[in-house]
Design a protein that fits this description.
The structure holds 2 protein chains of 2 kinds. Chain A is an all-alpha fold. Chain A is 65% helix and 0% strand. Chain A is elongated and about 60 Å long. The N and C termini of chain A lie far apart (46 Å). Chain B is globular, with a radius of gyration of 23 Å. The N and C termini of chain B lie far apart (48 Å). Classes of the chains: A mainly alpha, B alpha/beta. Chains A and B meet through α2 and α3 of A and α15 and α16 of B.
Chain lengths: 65, 487
């Protein structure tokens, strides 16, 4: 079961964000969860690693490392 | 050192081999050819990315396009650029950009320009050159059914596509159209008019002026005056529309498209001519206002354009061919002798070089290095490799998830060029001296040391730019994307 953490945010910021929150998010918490998940997503870094690995493999094939 | 002003002109789709000062035989750039005689001309200027959204961040912010992550497009919020450095140093700043949607405030390009005009009005954003027949709803319903039946065999499908294409042309032929009416972006004269009007109002303040011109960009509807000057008056607006529509066909192969190539190139060249003529007007105005002698002037392109050299059209970032990555670069700096720099010069170095030439220290975040020392003293530029990178095409490049694909990279040396396609897990090495058209990649066993050297450079580039990511800028850019995604 997922553990939760309490985060303290200024009331006026929360109120402003709630006002802005698009319809697809049922609550401010849902919006924050989405934003944080998107920010920590690591799709790009996996590709970066694979690309670096590919070059390394080619250099090894050529006998240079 | 006295503070200088700076004009940066970027021309969309301008190929290095279509300007006179780099050897093009058609007289499309008479003014720039003269200016080249008092400038530094880089005959092997290489963009850092293709297309516009991967190329321009390198020119303005001296940053490799994928170094903030491939989900980032444009300039990150508060990212240091030529504009921010010039503005902080007290210059007036303005940008007049000819309606390229990727160079808009949506992608952060407006920051640090006191005057920012991207001409992205509704009428320009949705201007369609397709015939009205294609837009007629009742006709579309009928056509949809006929089209569906035609897909039964390859032959009937081809026959339908052919008939429908020419039917659309026939319908639209009756319309009274003009080049100006069909053009989808403001022509260079409109941009230069705005720039001159702005310049006339800033007094004797130092300034940074950025112009992005779209005239050589598809669809090609150059002003009649440009066509007449090149002896191409026979191209009417109607003919140009048929040609542009034919050139855009996806249902015919390169062999059939090739019959339109020369005429499309003529329209393209007329666009280049118009750019040249308007730049001449801008420089005349600067001379008249006695600003020219203190002004650094740079002209380059965000990328080139393919005209079926290897079957490709436009500027899709798939091949990293020379037609796309090699662009003209001319820099005129007061007090600096004219010369030709022949080695590869990455546009990543352009922003720091221009800033230093203007007497301003480049920001620490810049990944390129100033070459002002070498240019101002007339010494040789360092021999170096130029790297260009991009992510292959998805359906909608504006969606970050569509950009989560393997990248392409070109490592361009003076004699050799390595193109790495990470999607195919393959690399191609070309000897540009014997194969300038990149038609025959060298077999794996040939030029092994060169291959290894360029691969090593690619590895170092990845390590340097991806591992040392500026996480603050990346986060800001990502948040901007998210704001657009959720709102």
């Amino acid at each position: 079961m997922a553990e939760y953490r309490t985060v303290h945010l200024p009331e006026d910021l929360c109120a402003a964000a709630e006002k802005w929150t698009p319809k697809r998010f049922e609550s401010l918490e849902a919006l924050l969860r989405f934003l944080l998940a998107e920010i920590v997503k690591e799709d790009g870094s996996k590709l970066d690693q694979a690309e670096e690995q590919m070059i390394q493999d080619r250099l090894r094939d050529l006998g240079y490392i | 050192m006295k503070r200088r002003s700076l004009v940066l002109v970027t021309v969309d789709c301008l190929r290095a081999d279509h300007v006179g000062f780099q050897g093009y035989s058609r007289p499309v750039t008479p003014f720039l050819d003269l200016l080249a005689k008092e400038s530094v001309v880089f005959t092997n200027a290489i963009v850092a990315g293709v297309p516009t959204y991967f190329s321009v961040p390198a020119m303005l912010a001296s940053r490799y396009p994928l170094s903030l992550g491939r989900d980032v497009v444009g300039i990150a919020p508060h990212e240091p650029t030529i504009a921010s450095a010039m503005r902080q140093a007290g210059s007036s700043t303005a940008a007049f950009l000819a309606a390229n949607p990727y160079l808009s405030s949506r992608f952060g390009y407006h920051e640090d320009f006191e005057t920012f005009c991207d001409f992205l009005t509704d009428s320009l954003a949705d201007g369609a050159t397709l015939s009205r027949a294609a837009e007629d709803k009742s006709l579309s319903d009928f056509n949809r059914r006929v089209r569906m039946f035609s897909r039964g065999t390859h032959l009937t499908a081809a026959a339908y596509d052919e008939l429908y294409f020419w039917y659309c042309q026939w319908r639209s032929w009756r319309e009274n159209v003009s080049m100006d009416g069909l053009r989808r972006y403001p022509a260079a004269d409109v941009i230069v008019d705005q720039a001159c009007s702005w310049l006339s109002g800033i007094g004797d303040q130092p300034f940074f002026l950025w112009l992005h011109l779209m005239d050589p960009h598809y669809p090609h509807y150059p002003p009649q005056e440009a066509l007449a000057a090149l002896g191409l008056s026979h191209f009417t607006a109607r003919r140009a529309r048929v040609l542009n529509s034919a050139w855009n066909r996806d249902d015919i192969g390169p062999q059939r498209l090739r019959r339109y190539r020369e005429r499309i190139l003529s329209l393209y060249d007329a666009g280049v001519y118009w750019v040249d003529k308007q730049i001449s007007r801008l420089v005349s105005a600067l001379r008249e206002w006695q600003r020219w002698d203190e002004t650094i002037f740079a002209l380059t392109a965000d990328h080139g354009e393919e005209f079926l050299e290897q079957g490709g059209r436009y500027h899709s970032p798939v091949t990293m061919r020379e037609e796309l990555v090699r662009v003209p670069l001319l820099v005129r700096m007061p007090g600096v002798s004219s010369r030709t720099a022949k080695g590869p010069f990455s546009l990543i170095h352009l922003a720091p070089t221009l800033l230093e030439a203007a007497g301003i220290a480049p920001p620490d975040t810049f990944q390129g290095r100033s070459r002002w020392d070498q240019l101002s003293t007339g010494t040789d530029l360092p021999s170096e490799l130029a790297i260009a990178e991009s992510v292959g095409t998805g359906k909608n490049i504006l969606r970050a998830d569509e950009r989560m694909r393997p990248c392409q990279m070109a490592v361009r040396g003076e004699a050799y060029k390595l193109v790495i396609n990470f999607n195919e897990k393959a690399e191609r090495l070309y000897d540009l001296r014997s194969d300038p058209r990149e038609q025959s990649p060298l077999p794996a066993g040939v030029a092994r040391a060169e291959r290894a050297r360029l691969l090593q450079a690619a590895r170092e580039h990845l390590q340097k730019t991806r591992h040392n990511q500026n996480s603050d800028l990346a986060l800001r850019a990502r948040l901007r994307e998210l704001r657009h995604a959720v709102s």
